[in-house]
Specification:
The protein has 1058 residues and is an alpha+beta fold. 36% of the residues lie in helices and 19% in strands. The chain contains 32 helices and 41 strands. Strand 12 and strand 13 (526-539) form a beta hairpin. The chain is extended.
């Protein structure tokens, strides 16, 4: 032990191994530079030199390296131990110094997960819980139900972040945002809440509703002001907000705390503690009060002796006498409380100053601490109750009711009150906040005079020209909306809501109101709020989610309020008639002219419209200049009418009249009253040409198609979104179209947009044909087969697919006695396809035949064509219905139940013939001359691109008339070669499809007659491309003939390759 320690100490000492190593190196250097020993040296000296050289210079330096490595290892071990001791000491010191937090309560499903998650992460971070131990700590802080969820999903093996995210998704309500938004919109201060607690609750609700700051800020600010219990404080805050428009909601909350604190301080009584702290000051004040009381009593005695007037005898003193009493608290004397009242502002005796209808003086400070020089805030409301000399007013902007006395009415309303006709009258008034009573007071009440306000007043002689309308994009729908800067919230009618939900029920979500809520219009009328619609709105280049209030009785389809303008950064340039969104100008209905410049047309006299006839009605144009030309159309903002207006161009007469052609299509006569709105008049500029864009059946006939290209060029342009979608779906940028041809094509496709499917579920439904299924024997016994076994994965697929088919409206539940089993077939991409085994049903169905077009004749008609297009229908069979009485035959059974088809299913043997019959009926005028039809494959031919545009329009017109839709992603337009019926058609001729040739080359060797006949049938389809086909295929036909046993070994590879 001592020797090892000595060695260790020697190794660490400066003169130890390291020093010896330096001496060794020094000896080596000296020995290498010294001269060799003389020859005459003795042998002893030579031996001594040899021993010294061996000690100083080991072979190859191995001894030096070994000593150095030992030293380095020793130093490394010492440093590691030192670092470990310091780290342990630092961790122990940090642990002892860190605060010991109380763990959060175990999480229950009904708790707020976000708040609990914050508490949990704070606890874990404060206690420095190691990462591997965090899942165990999380489990210990969960309720049993939540622990079960963790174990069932194996989340205890995942990271803490993954586990918390899964818990949030599982135990957080998906509808929290919608509920929080509705709660925020109607929030009011609770009795137990302070102003700060009320503001904090509004802030939490805005965050839970996931509102962005530009949307949340004005809403929180408005609800904080209008939801306060103290209406006097609310009025003060509203005025402060008007004076300081840059103040945020937090600034108003801070101001509310200051005002509430001052009120509390002023209203608090002097406590014994304060009195003890300042006894001299209290005694001085009490003495001063007793002195003032004596002076007041002397003044009253003098007034009563000098003036015998009744008025002065009943007039109370300006300073009420006080009685300190035994308790030392101030009390009003009974004489003061019983004295008759008199207004100090107008000297009337029927009311007090607070109820005076006259405004306060212009200088000084009025009641409530508001400067009287400031214009008082006038409110609008409706008298709901009136009995005797008092009643109640319901304000239009605030939910509370205000007390109103007879003395607060103006002379006109007093006369109305005497005749008991005040209830229902819309009035304007000033609010007198009275926190000590249940209801505030209304003073200065007079009848409400509606101001003139653009088109919303709908005065008889007001043209509709000051409102601005824009086109909104909501999903695939285009909606006309009115910009209204006087509306706080955006409002939508029920008709538009129903249309949006029907087109896209997933992205357009309607949430019904949980309790009765009403919105007040500018004219004072109220309407019920049915709920809110959440949808994705696009205006200009901005697209974001917006919330609309849904009401009934909307004049316009959609009204865009202040909340929309703030969220989309909308700026109204009224002088220029422009609207900007985020600095970019957006069109205001068809460019610089639109609905907002149209004027209303009313009937000039009473007119009776006979049934099924057209009548010329003398009418008056509101606000039009005499002699001005214009376009007469349907009346504004109304699509449903009992009569039709013939569109025409006319000039206004010198008396402001025009003639309107009205058509009564009903079987009963219709009455038009004088002054009834019947049409609209849109002024035209001098020299302006109206493009004729209303195309008719005659325009799309083959004989009149020469001028169709010119008419198509005058069609309106699609909006940017639609144009981009059309280019992408039809791959038009890959075509050889010129810029002009591309523009006309986009106009054409936009015109026939209703014949183009927006998605795989967007199907047409033709009215030209319904498939009938007839049995060979009408008394045939129904065939019912049991359902086949399915795996859990297949059941999951069936759940989704069946629900999708029901939503599309192609199947329905059935109690049919017929039932066929389903078969799930796997596609090439691995997905599954639902098929139905109708083999047993097909045996008892009467066949239906319809001749299919000959392929040879179809190809012969393509001679001379250089441009081709092919169209493909979206789920072609599903666009054709089945007769109601025949649907039971298509019933099928699956684990989800029994269903039947409402449209033509795949597998019924009469389906191809019925569909061929429909296509022949639809395209009969165009067959062979414009297009070729083979079942659902449509090919269009033309000599150049211009002719192709016209032919494409003719085909789309026929599809639109039949209510059939094409799938754009499977269509090819303006191609020099297209695939059709297994062939490639081009200007050079017809050739076999290369993919079909590869299929023949890779055909597996047949093992029975059936496979051989299938191969021969496939090869025979292309026989005209194979020279001497009959000679080459004769050996194979010989094997397929006769009843001899098939021997696959007789077929060689050479037979197939030839």
């Amino acid at each position: 032990m001592s020797s090892s320690n000595e060695e260790s100490d020697e190794a660490l000492s400066p003169n130890g191994a390291a020093g010896q190593g330096q001496q060794v190196l020094q000896l080596q250097t000296e020995s290498s530079t010294s001269t060799p020993p003389e020859a005459g040296a003795s042998s002893q000296q030579a031996a001594q030199v040899g021993d010294t050289s061996r000690d100083a210079k080991p072979p190859h330096g191995m001894a030096d390296q070994s000593d150095l490595s030992k030293v380095l290892q020793t130093l490394t071990m010492i440093l590691e131990k030192t670092c470990d001791r310091e780290a342990s000491a630092a961790a122990e010191k940090l642990s002892n110094s860190s605060p010991k937090l109380r763990p959060p309560p175990p999480f229950q499903p009904q708790m707020n997960f976000e708040l609990w998650e914050t508490q949990f992460l704070t606890y874990v971070e404060a206690h420095h819980v190691p990462t591997p131990q965090q899942p165990a700590v999380l489990l210990s802080m969960l309720a049993p139900e939540c622990q079960e969820f963790i174990f069932n999903n194996s989340l205890h093996r995942e990271s803490i972040q993954t586990a918390l995210k899964s818990l949030k998704d599982r135990f957080t309500d998906s509808g929290t945002e919608h509920k929080s938004y509705l709660e925020l919109a109607v929030a009011e201060q609770l009795n137990s809440e302070t102003t700060q607690e009320f503001f904090d609750r509004l802030t939490r609700l805005s965050k839970s509703a996931n509102l962005k700051k530009p949307t949340a800020e004005p809403l929180v600010r408005a609800r904080f002001c209008y939801g306060l219990r103290d209406k006097g404080l609310a009025e003060r805050l509203i005025l402060l907000g008007q004076e300081n428009p840059t103040w945020s909601a937090e600034d108003l909350a801070k101001k509310a705390r200051e005002i509430a604190g001052v009120k509390k301080l002023l209203s608090s009584e002097v406590t014994p503690v304060i009195r003890a702290a300042a006894p001299d000051r209290t005694a001085e004040l009490e003495a001063r009060i007793r002195e003032l009381e004596k002076l007041v009593q002397q003044n009253q005695t003098t007034q009563s002796s000098d003036h015998n007037s009744k008025d002065f005898q009943n007039f109370p003193s300006q300073v009420p006498p006080v009685n300190l009493g035994q308790s030392g608290q101030y009390k009003n004397s009974s004489r003061w409380s019983k004295s008759p009242k008199r207004c100090n502002r107008c000297s009337d005796h029927d009311h007090l100053t607070a109820d005076c209808p006259k405004p306060p003086p212009s200088n000084g400070v009025g009641a409530g601490g508001r400067p009287t020089g400031m214009a008082p805030m006038m409110e609008i409301g409706t008298i709901t109750v009136w009995k005797g000399g008092f009643g109640f007013i319901q304000p239009s902007q605030m939910p509370d009711s205000l007390f109103c006395h007879y003395s607060s009415l103006d002379n006109e309303l007093k006369q109305v009150a005497n005749s008991h006709q005040l209830v229902g009258t819309t009035v304007q008034f000033l609010r007198r906040a009275d926190p000590g009573h249940k209801h505030d007071r209304a003073v200065g009440v007079c009848r409400y005079q509606m101001p003139v306000r653009c088109d919303q007043s709908w005065a008889a002689d007001t043209p509709v020209e000051s409102s601005m309308f824009v086109q909104l994009g909501i999903g695939d729908n285009k909606v006309i909306a009115c910009l209204d800067s006087g509306c706080n919230a955006s409002v939508m009618g029920t008709k538009v809501r129903d249309q949006l939900i029907a087109n896209d029920p997933i992205n357009n979500t309607f949430i019904p109101a949980r309790k009765y809520q009403a919105a007040t219009a500018f004219n004072g009328t109220s309407t019920q709020i049915l709920g809110t619609l959440h949808c994705e709105v696009k205006l200009g280049k901005i697209s974001q989610t917006h919330v609309f209030l849904v009401t009934e009785g909307q004049v316009t389809d959609v009204l865009l309020g202040i909340d929309f303008m703030r969220g989309f950064n909308v700026n109204l340039l009224v002088a220029d008639g422009q609207v900007t969104v985020a600095g970019e100008v957006v069109p205001v209905i068809e460019g610089d002219r639109g609905v907002f410049q149209a004027r209303r047309v009313t009937a000039a006299c009473n007119v009776q419209l006979p049934p099924r006839s057209e009548t010329m009605v003398p009418s008056r144009v509101i606000g039009a200049d005499p002699g001005s030309p214009g376009f007469l159309g349907t009346k504004l903002f109304c699509s449903d009418s009992e009569f039709f207006v013939a569109h025409s161009v006319d000039s206004v007469s010198s008396t402001g009249h025009v003639l309107v052609r009205l058509l009564n299509s009903g079987n009963q006569p219709s009455e038009i009253a004088a002054g009834q709105e019947i049409a609209s008049f849109q002024s035209l500029r001098v020299g302006e040409t109206i493009s004729h864009t209303a195309l008719t059946e005659k325009d799309f006939s083959v004989s009149s198609s020469k001028d169709l290209g010119t008419k198509l060029a005058k069609l309106p342009d699609p909006d940017l979104g639609t144009a981009s979608w059309l280019k992408k779906q039809f791959k038009l940028e890959e075509s050889t179209l010129s810029e002009t041809q591309l523009t006309i094509t986009l106009k054409l496709l936009n015109y026939f947009l209703s014949a183009i499917s927006k998605s795989d579920t967007d199907l047409g439904k033709t009215h030209l044909h319904e498939m009938a299924i007839e049995l060979n024997e009408p008394t045939c016994r129904p065939i019912s087969q049991p359902s086949r076994r399915t795996t859990p994965a297949q059941k999951e697929f069936l759940d989704r697919h069946i629900n999708q088919l029901i939503e599309q409206g192609v199947i329905e539940e059935s109690n049919s006695e017929w039932a066929s089993p389903i078969v799930l077939v796997r596609k090439k991409d691995g997905s599954q396809r639902l098929c139905i085994d109708y083999r047993s049903v097909n045996k008892v169905i009467k066949p239906c035949t319809f001749p299919l077009p000959l392929i040879e004749e179809s190809f012969d008609s393509l001679a001379g064509s250089k441009v081709f297009s092919s169209l493909d229908l979206t789920s072609a069979y599903w666009q054709v219905g089945i007769r109601e009485q025949d649907r039971d035959l298509t019933a099928f059974t699956c684990p989800q139940g029994t269903y039947r088809w409402k449209v033509v299913p795949f597998g019924i043997k009469t389906a191809p013939a019925n569909f061929a019959k429909l296509m022949h009926k639809v395209f009969r005028p165009l067959l062979m001359r414009v297009s070729l039809i083979y079942l659902d494959d449509i090919i269009i031919k033309a000599r150049d691109n211009d002719e192709m545009i016209v032919h494409l329009a003719l085909v789309l017109w026929q599809l639109k008339k039949a209510n059939l839709k094409i799938k754009p992603s499977k269509c090819e337009l303006f191609k020099d070669r297209v695939r059709f019926l297994g062939f490639v058609v081009s200007s050079q001729g017809i050739e076999a499809d290369p993919t079909k040739i590869d299929a023949v080359r890779n055909w597996c060797k047949p093992t029975d007659k059936r496979q051989l006949l299938a191969f021969l049938g496939f090869a025979n389809y292309y026989r005209k491309f194979v020279a001497r086909f009959s000679v080459i295929a004769s050996p194979l036909y010989s094997l397929a003939k006769g009843s001899s046993k098939f021997c696959g070994s007789n077929i060689t590879t050479e037979h197939l390759k030839s």
